[in-house]
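User: Predict the complex with MRU.
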Amino acid sequence: MKVNNKHYRTIWMQGSSVFMIEQNLLPFEFKIFESTNYLDTCMAIKTMIVRGAGAIGAAAGFALAQAAIEAGKNNYGEYITIAKKTIEDTRPTARNLFTATERVYFAAKQSVQLAIDEAQKIADEDAQTSLAIGKYGNELIKPGFGIETHCNAGWLAFVDHGTALAPIYLAHQSGKQVFVYVDETRPRNQGAKLTAWELQNENVPHAIIADNAGAHLMSKGKIDIMITGADRIALNGDTANKIGTLEKAIAAKYYGIPFYIAAPKSTFDINCKTGNEIIIEERDQNEVLYQIGMNKHNKPENLLISAPGADAINPAFDVTPAELITGIITENGIIEASDNGIIKLFKS
Ligand code: MRU
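Assistant: Here is the predicted structure with MRU placed in the model:
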């Protein structure tokens, strides 16, 4: 994607360093963060310098490749095994992170170079699958559609292109004159901050809506389709995505609005039978109690926006039952959210 006319990927590896767009500073500041070792890359995943299922999958793969580079000859096996566990402990919900560590660990056991190659391959595949998802998703979008999306499943959440936003970019580029309703997506506001920033860069007409405005707009006929991303999809099609997705899916079902999930195969967890088995990350309560905004000196500032001393509960994801999902847009086409659809996808 282009930022100030220069093409960027969200994350890339050069030598033994991993570079990533510092997402905590967006949309106020555009900065590249360089991580020179695997523990720093773990910190970047944990603190959400890099976030979004595909992007943290790529980060996890690169982190394990960095660990393979750092490991001494004598304790190589032990070093990469501990590194794998440390990387997997950063964030529990997005399946892509584990898909990546499993693949790079297998390669690293053979050689450092194979680990680097595999990590690079994962990042390249992530960009390619996103583009394919865009093409299939675009077929669902008719001219003039109002499209609602939740959180950020755009190019910042992947290596490039994105999942939920990829069809929207292609629809816009082909002149379909779509309008995007961007859920702000509390508590971290990935919609208001990241999705809106991406859409602005691409000149896609859009408006940020308060999280609780979605059902109202659906009731007024403003939303023709809803597309969101996914962090982990169980074998039966139950889907974990950013907190608040479930409420939107329930509202969409009530108003008869098609509700699609867009995700690559690396997000599916076929060993997880239903959504009940998906671990939901609990994050720091301060993400709910405070907000980073821009102050009058044009500097980002973290402000208390709640009653002083109040406690908060901060589950980062929820699970939308398969029965509320119209279909899942994958790199191999649009599938049914069911065991059947998912088994067929993995056989193809
Ligand atoms: O906590 P995050 O920002 O890493 O959450 C992941 C997400 O951005 C969303 O859940 C998204 O819709 C799916 S990831 C492409």
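The first strand starts at residue 2 and ends at 3.
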